[in-house]
Amino acid sequence: GAGVSQSPSNKVTEKGKDVELRCDPISGHTALYWYRQSLGQGLEFLIYFQGNSAPDKSGLPSDRFSAERTGGSVSTLTIQRTQQEDSAVYLCASSLGWTGGINTGELFFGEGSRLTVL
Amino acid sequence: LAKTTQPISMDSYEGQEVNITCSHNNIATNDYITWYQQFPSQGPRFIIQGYKTKVTNEVASLFIPADRKSSTLSLPRVSLSDTAVYYCLVGDIGNFGNEKLTFGTGTRLTIIP
């Protein structure tokens, strides 16, 4: 697609349930980021992928959070046993990554997945 | 990783020039300065990026002094549609594999009619 696509756009779940959030980056973008944004707050870094590997997982809030990326494209963020404090907008961004040439490293964001845990 | 500090909020009237300053005292030699804009219910979008001196594009200007310890985003003749949150980021764009690209809380700019 033309931009970063995220699904679902809205998810309401009950406490204790597992949820999966999907991100489809811009074709050809090797770098993929997940952020979390609580109401009125800034963006909290969660995880970064370069290709299929995630060199930095330290931003994941707890072991209930996991993410994978297969085929260097689509990524899934999974939250197990959701808690009310997990309620937030989860934003995905992709980037060309470092090409060795002129590159601003610009991040292209999706519209986000709004998660509400009741 | 260079930490940035910005004002939490700013108000301005339509038609005025708005300057938002970001402090980044620990900026490293390879770090670039990037600004993003975020409207409600949307993801942030890239505005401008610079390394030193002045950069201008169709949307904004970015002023960076010689010591690079701060930067100023300048929005000319703002309109109501410029009401948004503006984030300043500092990072080595050639080394994104080791960067968390932390956004911080940003500056909430409100344009008054």
Describe the fold and architecture:
The complex is a heterodimer of chains A (118) and B (113). In chain A, β4 and β5 form a beta hairpin. Helix content of chain A is 0%, strand content 48%. In chain A, the strands form two sheets. In chain A, strands 2, 4, 5, 6, 9, 10 and 11 form a seven-stranded mixed sheet that branches. Chain A has a four-stranded antiparallel sheet with strand order 1-3-8-7, with no helix packed on it. Chain A is built from no helices and eleven strands. The model of chain A has no long low-confidence stretch (mean pLDDT 89). Chain A starts with a strand and ends with a strand. Chain A is an all-beta fold. By secondary structure, chain B is mainly β. Chain B has no helices and nine strands. In chain B, the strands form two sheets. In chain B, strands 1-9-8-3-4 form a five-stranded mixed sheet, with no helix packed on it. In chain B, strands 2-7-6-5 form a four-stranded antiparallel sheet, with no helix packed on it. In chain B, β5 and β6 form a beta hairpin. Chains A and B meet through β4, β5, β9 and β10 of A and β3 and β4 of B.
Radius of gyration of chain A, Cα only, in angstroms? Answer: 14 Å
Low confidence ranges of chain A? none
The N- and C-terminal alpha carbons of chain B lie at a distance of: 39 Å
- Helical content band of chain A: under 10%
Q: Strand sequence of the main sheet of chain B, in spatial order? A: 1-9-8-3-4
Radius of gyration of chain B over all CA atoms, rounded: 14 Å
Largest sheet of chain B: 5 strands, mixed
